[in-house]
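Researcher: Next entry in the queue.
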Amino acid sequence: MKSVIQVIGIFFIFVCIYSFNITDAYHFDNDFARDLVEIQEITRGDLRLIGPGATFGGLKTSPYYYYLFAPILALSSFSISAMLIFQTLLFAGAISFFFHKSKQKYSLIPALLATCVIGFSPFMLLAARSPGNAFTYISLLMVLLTYIHFYDIKHPLVVSIIGFVMGIVVTTHYSNLILILPVGVLIWHKLTQKKYIWLLLVGFVVALTPLILFELKHDFVMFRNTFIDKSYVNFLESKQLAGAETAKQNIFENIIFISQRMYEYLGVHPFVLMLILTIAYYYSRKNKTVLLHLVTVTIAYVTVIILLRSQFAMHYLFPLMTFLLFSTVLVLLSKKQTFIGFILVILILLHFPKGLYSDSSRPYTLFEARVAQVLQQRLVSTDTRFNILQVRPDTIIVPHGYEYRFFFEKAGVFPQKVDQYAQSDTLLIFSEITDYDLDSLRNWEIEQFGRENLSNAKKTQLKDITVYRLSK
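Model: Structure for this entry, 472 residues:
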């Protein structure tokens, strides 16, 4: 009973930490708003075989993340707050599961310190408060790594399920591809009957089913676009993701670049964590389990440094960071290094990302209020064939205004799709730039709608934004 209370206590503490001020602090932006529109359509019966687009060529991710959140969105009457809280519950649950198994095998204090090292790491706090395919999978990855470490893998069905879960993680965000070999090595080590290892592949392939069905249905469009038409070149030339950083081509420079970026979000320099693993191996009389963690982490680290030398986004490193942090605390637990665990907790808390909890300049309530004002002024109605554009001063992409689309659809007023500007009779342009010159708009969307219609734009000034209504 005491153990159950402790686990519930850890769960409650991390829910409170992860969800504190989340509604006002969450930065509501295009990507999650786009996903909300897709999830909202799933709840209305329009099912999906693919998820968000990847930033490598024409590849799409799997739709599992959509279906995970769809019931929450439907049951909460399309509440974004419910989605945010659900994300924190997933992470608090994964952290609690790790604490429970750590305490069972070791003892309370080491398990508590290890849990705090993982749970308070800046990137984990960010992920726990940011629903999306680039973050949500981390909770499932934590559960998977915890299971692999603390359980004997005997039954063939369990092997298949592990492969299936790994497939979900990898296809939800392809940055997890770097973990296939290291995690595979860990599973091989824990597998009591090696003859079942092929079932990992079976489970993994089953997880690919939605993507395979999509390709069969659409004449292998993702493969053709990415590899035949060579759209992957855009990734290699850092053109796939607007405004993305570029990693370093020189291997040694890239080691410094990648490691420094990881330090910003880990709270502890990755070199320190690697040093801990190396020293632990040396002083453990070359223990095979410690060596296994050191080797698998090194494989993952080297793979990232070699492969990630072009387009770069910070979340590409989150699988490696999760794996490195897990491996380090597991070794510290096995060696009962409470003092080092305590030092790591202090270092991580010194890097606590307080900015995550500050009120956002773009809370979702802001967009909800703007849509309500547009509907109140009857700029569009349920029978209007309209589309949406958004003009922002801080982005170089063409925002399709998904932040507004979600709330229009929630109100039962449905804009046309982002590839239907030519079929739309009305265009709403939400401008966050004061006195914006519409003639400066140069994009495919406005050309499709008809540049000649810019001259009949009607301007409506809301409280904090200008809305232009263009009609054909």
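Model: The CA atoms of residues 384 and 426 lie 7 Å apart.
Researcher: Noted, moving on.
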